[in-house]
Write a structure and sequence with these properties.
With about 450 residues, the protein is mainly α. The protein has one domain: Amino acid/polyamine transporter I (Up-down Bundle). It contains 20 helices and no strands. Helix 1 crosses helix 8, helix 4 packs across helix 18 and helix 8 packs antiparallel against helix 13. The longest helix has about 35 residues. The protein is globular, with a radius of gyration of 22 Å. The two termini are about 25 Å apart. The relative contact order is 0.21.
Length: about 450
């Protein structure tokens, strides 16, 4: 008779693996693209731009520290799903896991795969058929790596994270060294902006810029999904979430300052691909392809982080008898939840092949932040339910820390809804994302009534 399938994951992720997973999950294409948009949103003010990047990083730090307490106290596979389940019940937790599969994680993977293909075309011309094949192939390669082994996937994540973080440091140093000689930086309110914005317009722009920055910092929560595979989680999560947040804030501020020095505030505000623009201006036309290659590594790394972590949520749901039971099986050969990984990879390919996926990805951000805020809010009922329970780590300045992050999540949700209401097409795709989430209701009824 064949041996029964394993239903437990091995703790193979070390502290430095978790740190690099944390950083690599966040650094995608945002830091290479969005600083110009943010510069426009705050009317060209350099000081306000830097302040927004700093405040966005600090708000993300508050969320990371909150999640670190939850992960250290309950280090099981599924992370955020488990916190919502324990605090608010099985239904919202199931809807989160359902949305993660059908909208959030798969939409993110599809968007990253398309971004990968877009930047591949900056290096190698591709026909439409070749571009579509590249998108699917990229998802397939990442899926195979993650079926093959958690240790192998983590090693890939470590290497690609070091490459893209190192690229930010090297490019930033070159831009600062050569850009200062060009003298393009001219102060907080550049001459190209004859009339700095009024107070109301400025603070409205700062609000929009803060939303954009928080999206650029988004992704660190993926590390909680793999809590069941982290060695010494009581120590690892608080340390890595703190140091990872501080490293990201430093990297992002360093990159933004370098872009501004290389291009000057006026040109920076006009660029939608600021890293390539800055490299081209300072280093020459060839440098744009170098940046494209770096973004290829970055998007591949970010995709790998999602596929490495998200299937652990489906694994946890199946163990709770709230999803297909086979998704809780651990491959005896590879030691991974192989079927859960494959399901996510296949559905991501479907979304990547569908027209209008990019709009659906915006809806995925909206749905995702509903649950990210709910996950942070879980700390309040969980603490109340366990008043005497010793905690290996307590989030500092409780309850201020989680409360402020929950407010930030509400701001992102409100902004996404506000933008969608002004654009009928955006609103339609937002409704599609909400409908996909609500389709989980009959699924929950089916699985919750099913006999184990």
């Amino acid at each position: 008779m064949p041996a029964p399938a394993k239903t437990e994951l091995s703790r193979t992720l070390r502290e430095h693996d978790l740190l690099l997973l944390f950083i690599g999950s966040v650094i995608g294409s945002g830091i290479f693209l969005t600083p110009g948009l943010i510069q426009r949103q705050i009317g060209g003010s350099v000081s306000w731009a830097l302040m927004v990047w700093l405040l966005g990083g600090l708000l993300s730090l508050l969320g990371a520290l909150t999640y670190a307490e939850l992960a250290a106290a309950n280090p099981e596979a599924g992370g955020l799903y488990c916190y919502i389940r324990d605090a608010f019940g099985r239904l919202p937790a199931f809807l989160y896991g359902w949305s993660l599969l059908f909208v959030i994680a798969s939409g993110t993977i599809a968007a990253l795969a398309h971004a990968f293909t877009t930047y591949m075309q900056e290096i190698v011309p591709l026909s439409p058929v070749e571009a579509s094949a590249t998108t699917i192939l990229m998802i397939a390669v990442v899926t195979v790596i993650n079926v093959w082994g958690t240790r192998k996937s983590s090693d890939v994540q470590n290497v690609t994270t070091i490459i893209k973080a190192g690229f930010i440091v090297v490019l930033g140093a070159l831009l600062l060294a050569l850009g200062l000689n060009r003298g393009s930086f001219q102060g907080a309110h550049p001459a190209g902006i004859a009339h700095p914005p009024g107070t109301y317009v400025l603070f409205s722009g700062v609000g929009l810029a803060m939303i954009t920055v928080l999206w650029a910092y988004e992704g660190w929560q993926f590390g909680t999904y793999s809590a069941g595979e982290v060695q010494n989680p009581q120590r690892s999560f608080p340390r890595t979430f703190l140091f990872g947040s501080l490293i990201l804030i430093g990297l992002y501020l360093f990159a933004v300052v370098a872009y501004l020095v290389a291009l000057g505030p006026v040109q920076a505000a006009q660029s939608d691909a600021i890293a390539a623009s800055a490299a081209r201006a300072v280093l020459g036309p060839w440098a744009a392809k170098f940046v494209a290659a770096a973004i290829l590594v970055s998007t591949f790394s970010s995709t790998n982080s999602v596929v490495l972590t998200a299937p652990r949520v489906f694994f946890a749901m199946a163990n709770d008898n709230l999803f297909f039971k086979k998704l809780a099986d651990v491959s005896p050969r590879f030691g991974t939840p192989a079927l859960a990984v494959l399901v996510l990879g296949v559905w991501s390919c479907v979304l990547a092949s569908a027209a209008g996926f990019a709009k659906l990805a915006n809806g995925a951000i909206f749905i995702g932040w509903i649950f990210y805020g709910l996950g942070a809010a879980a700390i309040f009922p969980i603490r109340r339910a366990n008043p005497g329970k010793p905690l290996p780590y307590r989030v500092p300045v409780y309850p201020f820390t989680p409360f402020v992050f929950v407010l930030a999540a509400l701001a992102i949700i409100g902004n996404a809804l506000f933008v969608a209401l002004r654009d009928p097409h955006e609103f339609l795709y937002l409704l599609v994302a909400i409908a996909l989430m609500l389709l989980g209701l009959p699924g929950y009824i089916f699985w919750s009534r099913r006999k184990t």
